[in-house]
Design a protein that fits this description.
This protein is α+β, with helices and mostly antiparallel strands. It contains 9 helices and 17 strands. Strands 1, 2, 5, 8, 9, 11, 13, 16 and 17 form a 9-stranded mixed sheet that branches. Strands 7-6-10-4-3-12-15-14 form an 8-stranded mixed sheet.
Length: about 450
């Protein structure tokens, strides 16, 4: 018996499924293009930041006091006493930082970069006299003349002007670099050659710094009590790191955030020697701060939209298949493929337009354009304007749901699950009486045989 492939239900289902799978290739290509464009954006951000200032990370001040120690080493069966120098580190009792974060937007081609100027950041607090006994260091081993205060700043190019440290009423100029500190890779320091005469009790310090950076500003909780207050006109802050602000206010006119952090929340002590220095990873884990967040990251939304591509193409093919089933139509596989390519084109249009006019306008133009294209094509393929209108309604519903899914990432999973359940329920209801063994597609077929 000759097999009529054209009207074979099984062949149509298998071939349509293969077409939907083949259309994953252009979807994957669009996804790759999204990642490429995002990479270009990141390169543009890095280039602009390299000329202005990288994300800044303020740590300190820390009192660094070198000391001399001796150790015994064996050489040719002889014991030789050698002398070496190591640093002792003393963290402040209190750190209080208050400043204004002034945002600036810069463009590099199509891409926007968020930069900032940290204006008049006043850092103040107190130190207690170093207790070398806790570190088993004799006072005669201490090299007071080499002592200094160090402040860690990753990109010192962002420092706008000279800085002076006020130490117990005396003004001492900062110098570039952190010498052989070991705790920070870069920053500034104040020589404290007169520290030998420092009496017991607390000693007050303060300094004011103006600093340029990009995207993120963070701090390390170096004091027993660390307090940071940042004010900014940027309305979209993203608070990052190990601690959230204890108080914050965010509005259209900007934000104000205040952190209060105790040394109990970090995993390194108030004083230590260089050989006992905590690892960089341990120190960095206690950092906190704020990122100036760009609220519309259309590359992320484009990539998420592409992930729904196969599902949407499959649902659209299912709708055409049901029209074919219930209306004794014969839709050619090439016509399915044309509709699939149109749906793939949506993601490319969405990406291209987003870079110029933003998320919402680009989504509206792309989705309406593709819906109009498929609806016009469906009027001929499905035979009547009424069926084309039903297809438009389906597409409108799908793209509306996709928009909601992209805008509500937290609820995307439950909304997607409910949508699929509703669609499966509708398909099962519509086909509940179909006798699948007797079906042949096409105008000469038997149509969907249903039970009485």
């Amino acid at each position: 018996m000759k097999l009529n492939v054209k009207n074979s239900l099984g062949f149509k289902i298998i071939f349509t499924g293969l077409l939907a799978t083949v259309l994953m290739i252009p979807l994957l290509m669009v996804g790759s293009l999204v990642r490429e464009r995002e990479s270009r954006r990141n390169e543009a951000v890095k280039e602009v930041s390299s000329r202005w200032g990288y994300p800044q990370h303020i740590a300190g001040p820390v009192l660094v006091v070198p000391f001399r120690y001796t150790y015994v080493e064996k050489e040719d069966n002889r014991k030789i006493v050698r002398t070496a120098v190591e640093n002792a580190y003393f963290l402040p009792e209190t750190v209080d930082a208050r400043g204004n974060l002034v945002p600036e937007k810069r463009s590099r081609g199509l891409y926007e970069v968020v930069l900032y100027g940290l204006r008049d950041l006043v850092v103040s607090g107190s130190f207690t006299s170093p207790d070398f006994g806790k570190l088993n260091i004799a006072r005669e081993q201490v090299l007071w003349e080499r002592a200094y205060l160090a402040v860690g700043i990753p990109d010192t190019r962002g420092i706008q002007q000279g800085i002076k440290m006020n130490w117990d009423g005396r003004e001492l100029p900062f110098m570039p670099g952190v010498k052989s500190m070991g705790l920070y890779e870069s920053g500034i320091h104040v020589p404290m050659a007169g520290l030998r005469g420092m009496g017991p009790g607390r000693h007050q310090y303060s300094f004011t710094i103006n600093l340029r950076g990009s995207s993120t500003l963070s701090f390390l909780p170096m004091g027993k009590e660390t307090s940071v207050e940042i004010n900014s006109s940027w309305p979209h802050p993203s608070f990052t790191g190990a601690y959230l602000p204890s108080q914050r206010r965010v509005g259209d006119d900007g934000f104000r955030a205040n952190w209060k952090v105790s040394h109990f929340g970090r995993n390194f002590p108030q004083e230590f020697v260089q050989s006992q220095m905590p690892s960089e990873d341990v120190i960095e884990k206690s950092s906190f701060g704020v990122r100036l967040f760009l609220p519309v990251d259309f590359y992320q939304k484009c990539e998420r939209a592409v992930k729904y591509g196969f599902l949407f193409i499959s649902l659209t093919f299912l709708a055409f298949f049901l029209f074919e089933l219930f209306n004794r139509l014969s839709i050619h596989p090439l016509q399915y493929l044309m509709v699939g390519f149109a749906m793939c084109l949506f993601y490319l249009l969405f990406l291209a337009l987003s870079e110029h006019i933003g998320f919402l306008p680009s989504y509206a133009i792309s989705s309406l354009g593709v819906m109009a294209l498929i609806t016009g094509y469906s009027a001929k393929v499905l035979g009547t304007q009424k069926r084309a209108g039903a297809m438009f309604g389906l597409l409108f519903g799908l793209y509306t749901v996709l928009y909601v899914l992209l805008e509500n990432e937290d609820y995307a999973l439950i909304m997607g699950a409910v949508l699929l359940f509703a669609i499966l329920t509708a398909v099962m209801y519509l086909t509940r009486n179909v006798d699948w063994y007797r079906i042949k597609l096409g105008p000469q077929g038997a149509g969907p045989a249903v039970e009485g």
